[in-house]
Amino acid sequence: MKKKIKIVLIGVGTLIAVVLLIGGGFFYKFNSEIKKMHPVATGKIVDNIFAIKDEFVNIYVLQDSNQYIVIDAGQDIEVVAAEFKKLNINPDLVIAVLLTHTDPDHVAGVPLFKNAKIYLAKEEEKMLTGQKQKIPFVSNSISRKDYILLEDKQTLKIGNENSFSILTEGHTTGSMCYQINDKYLFTGDILSLVNGKLGPSVKFLDLDNEMATKSISKITNLPNVEYIFTAHFGYTSDYKNAVKDWK
Predict the structure, then answer these.
(1) The pairing of beta strand 192-194 with beta strand 235-236
(2) Is residue 165 part of a domain?
(3) How confident is the model at residue 158 (pLDDT cuts 50, 70, 90)?
(4) Is the pLDDT of residue 192 over 90?
(5) What CATH number is attached to the domain comprising 139?
(6) What would the pLDDT profile of 53-90 be if each residue is shown by its tens digit?
(7) Does residue 187 lie within any of the structural domains?
(8) Which has the minimum average pLDDT: 9-23, 92-106, 211-225, 230-244?
(9) CA 136/CA 115 separation, integer angstroms
């Protein structure tokens, strides 16, 4: 009996050690990738667009007269609320939240925007139902269930602004870029910016890196775009230069 207990304890101990080793490796790699990111500081950045910095991720806020449209919602609701206060923007005036995807660092602030409609790609719902998972047995989630699902290449009128949805799957199954008023392109995590040039997404954090890389080609030939806004690597005002060498 004692021998059986000993074997069981050894087995449990080995399993725990393996889990800790894998977990430690994941967090080490995760932190290494975060250190490479360079989101822009909170403030007005161009025209009627503001950035909010939530540690290693940006939220973008587009002012539409006396109301606002938000792209993504950050990773810490308290930080998001504090940064909105710094900008003197009332979250109650946000009429729409466009989610590029539903990873935890993009959805935490959703409850702040109680008057907003929440939009995400139809394919992204697979991340919420558990059909697709980056980590086994761990599904993405958001606090609202009344979200509106968007198709690829769907046009949308929000207030006085025009939005065009572009499905760029790979980082998640339903990663989506938003082209707003033709010239502003919000890309989420599907790519990086390196010295003003398009770079690949963060392979370690992708659901399907090969697909993510292919998806970038869907947004490199948009004739009216002037600006690219990324979630983790800042923005550029020179779209043509950024995309011209991408293959």
Answers:
(1) unpaired
(2) yes
(3) very high
(4) yes
(5) 3.60.15.10
(6) 999 999 999 999 999 999 999 999 999 999 999 999 99
(7) yes
(8) 9-23
(9) 34
Cα dihedral across residues 238, 244, 245, 247: positive or negative = positive
Residue owning tokens 């370690």: 204
Counts of helices then strands in the chain (DSSP H, E): 5, 15
Question: Given phi > 0 = left and psi -120 to 50 = alpha, else beta, which region is 130?
Answer: left
Q: Is the residue at 34 inside a domain? A: no
Distance CA 18, CA 20 (A): 5
Q: What is the mean pLDDT of residues 11-28?
A: 53
**DSSP string computed for 207-234:** S-HHHHHHHHGGGS--TT--EEEESSS-
Is there a contact between 231 and 247 (Cβ–Cβ < 8 Å)? no
> In which residue are the tokens 């207990």 written?
5
Residue type, 22: I
* Residue 6 covered by a domain: no
* Structural contact between residues 97 and 147, judged by C-beta atoms closer than 8 angstroms: no
**CA neighbor of 230 nearest in space, from 51, 88, 97:** 51
**Tokens standing for 197?**
């040039």
The count of domains in the chain is 1
Question: Tokens in use for 15?
Answer: 């399993």
Put residue 37 in one of left, alpha, beta given phi > 0 → left and psi -120 to 50 → alpha. beta
| Residue 105 φ then ψ, to 5° | -80, 10
Q: Can you give the residue range of the structural domain that contains 178?
A: 40-243
Q: Tell whether the model's pLDDT for residue 43 goes beyond 70.
A: yes
- Asked if pLDDT for residue 112 goes beyond 50, the answer is yes
- Whole-number pLDDT of residue 34: 78
pTM over 0.85: yes
